[in-house]
Write a structure and sequence with these properties.
Order of helices and strands: HEHEHEEEHEEEEEEEEEEEE
Strand order of the largest sheet: 6-7-8-9-11-14-15-17
Distance between the termini: 50 Å
Largest sheet: 8 strands, antiparallel, barrel
Helix content: 10-25%
Number of strands: 17
Shape: rod-shaped
Radius of gyration: 42 Å
């Protein structure tokens, strides 16, 4: 296999000019042009489209040309990365004009193709010898990529060598692949530690009531630790400190005349939720629906205030120190960790009782808590693992 390249001849230039004129009149040129699958010369499977034009040659080489033409289609397909399209030119035009093989094809003939393959079959220098010369063109700039030829005296042997010639030509294609940088991914640590603080509007419903009784806006804050189970699920354990303020207002029927009383009972407690979180990614944000149970641990005594003056302290407890909570959190990478915010609803299973305490109308102080929590926090990760979004 030797390399052979012939410079454009005057006859080829004239022929190309005539073809260029004929392109203006599509009725005179019956050509199979290529559908432009996309504007980058790729087919629907992402392979580069290669236009395979008719091989030049005399009638004496017609049978060899026919076999080479089919072999070229098979050889280009076998490369895997390319999608060959055979260009058929009407016999009338082909008989009157010689399509140049050593010049880039007229673009109208190979519309939608990224590359083009031209060539011809010619007699050799010795009797019985022939050579097949091929040109590979880059149609993005109508420039030649490479040319080479195959000298043979037996068509069967030439057909066996044809795939190697085609692979050699296409090995000179050097495409620049521009990779889009991947969006910055968050790390998905194995462990997370966070701190939080927020507001908790609460209602305190007495066992005999059917609707909300006393209302209060309380503060809460705490710490949390989470362990990743899968890229989408994690367990989270929290410890939160919160206060409760139960306020009663009404007329003191014992006094004469009755006076308006303002009574308040305050207490501290630790809440220990165990939650299951589902972590979904939405762009730069992590959205985490969550649900679970919590344990309530009373701290110290409940303090009784009357008209803003402290009068006594009473022990208190819960009949069932458990509750249920659900909510949703949103987080975003910020600095070395993540800033997050969340909204939750929680309800106690049991009833809180403050021993020896009485309301202004003489009833025992018993209530069930319903709470909302709106909070803001920051968390850090340890033992970084996979990127978020990877399975």
């Amino acid at each position: 296999m030797t390399r052979k390249f012939s410079p454009p001849s005057a006859k080829s230039a004239v022929t190309a000019a005539i073809l260029g004129v004929l392109v203006i009149f599509p009725a005179l040129l019956s050509a199979q042009t290529l559908p432009a699958e996309n504007n980058r010369g790729l087919d629907y499977e992402g392979r580069s489209v290669v236009a395979v034009l008719p091989l030049a040659g005399d009638e004496a080489e017609a049978e060899m040309i026919r076999r080479f033409q089919g072999g070229l289609m098979e050889s280009v397909t076998a490369l895997g990365r390319y999608s060959p399209r055979e260009i058929r030119v009407s016999t009338v035009i082909a008989a009157e004009l010689e399509i140049p093989t050593d010049m880039p094809p007229v673009p109208a003939l190979v519309s939608g193709a990224r590359y083009a393959l031209t060539g011809g079959v010619y007699p050799g220098n010795r009797s019985g010898d022939f050579y097949l010369q091929l040109w590979l063109w880059d149609m993005a700039g109508s420039t030649m990529i490479y040319t080479d030829d195959l000298v043979y005296d037996d068509i069967d042997g030439a057909m066996e060598s044809l795939p190697g010639l085609v692979e050699w030509l296409f090995s000179h294609i050097h495409e620049t692949v521009i990779e889009t940088p991947a969006a910055r991914a968050w790390l998905d640590p194995l462990f997370m530690f966070g701190i939080r603080a927020g507001l908790s509007p609460r209602s305190y419903i007495e066992p005999e009531e059917n609707s909300s009784g006393a209302l209060a806006l309380n503060l809460e804050g705490g710490v949390s630790g989470a362990i990743r189970l899968t890229p989408l699920l994690s367990f989270q354990l929290e410890i939160s400190l919160t206060n409760d303020s139960v306020v009663y207002r009404g007329l003191d029927s014992i006094s004469t005349p009755p006076v308006l009383e303002n009574e308040k009972l305050t207490s501290l407690s630790l809440t220990v939720p165990l939650l299951l979180k589902a972590n979904f990614r939405a762009g730069l944000f992590r959205i985490s629906p969550l649900a679970g149970f919590y344990l309530v641990l009373p701290l110290g005594k409940s303090h009784f205030y009357k008209n803003n003056e402290k009068e006594a302290s009473y022990p208190w407890s819960l009949s069932v120190p458990l509750g249920f909570t659900l909510g949703i959190e949103g987080a975003r990478q910020y600095g070395s960790g993540r800033i997050f915010t969340g909204l939750r609803y929680g309800v106690d299973f049991g009833t809180a009782s403050i021993d020896d305490a009485k309301t202004h109308d003489g009833y025992d102080v018993r209530y069930r808590r319903h709470s909302f929590s709106l909070y803001l926090g920051y968390e850090f990760g340890f033992y970084d693992g996979k990127k978020l979004g990877e399975l």
